[in-house]
Write a structure and sequence with these properties.
The protein is of the alpha+beta class. It is built from 4 helices and 4 strands.
Length: about 100
């Protein structure tokens, strides 16, 4: 995770992109962190929207909380890699049971 240390206050911050790399979703950021602690000029393009920065201490405290863990595991559904039900637990559709791959009509 890339953090930014600002000279003005010597605190470390993480951007929204950094949060996403840590497994945060937009909904979790909104619900658990709320508004950003600081807005900064976008280093890639000054005309772009400001970068939302969150204090690392607040982020780490939220990640230790139960609400983050619940929200984080809820995300591991069928859309997440490796998530969803085990294929062995899914029943065969009617009329296909017992047919091997490559056989049949």
């Amino acid at each position: 995770m890339r953090t930014v240390r600002l000279a003005e206050d010597e605190r470390r911050y993480v951007s929204l992109a950094g949060l996403r790399m840590r497994g945060w979703t937009g909904a979790l950021v909104h619900r658990l962190l709320g508004p950003p602690d600081r807005l900064s000029v976008n280093p890639r393009a000054r005309a772009a929207p400001q970068v939302r920065l969150y204090r690392v201490e607040r982020v780490e405290a939220a990640e230790r909380g139960e609400a983050f863990l619940r929200g984080h595991t809820r995300r591991a559904g069928p859309a997440a890699p490796g998530g969803g039900p085990d294929p062995a637990d899914i029943p065969d559709p009617p009329g296909i049971a017992g047919v091997r791959e490559g056989e049949g009509p």
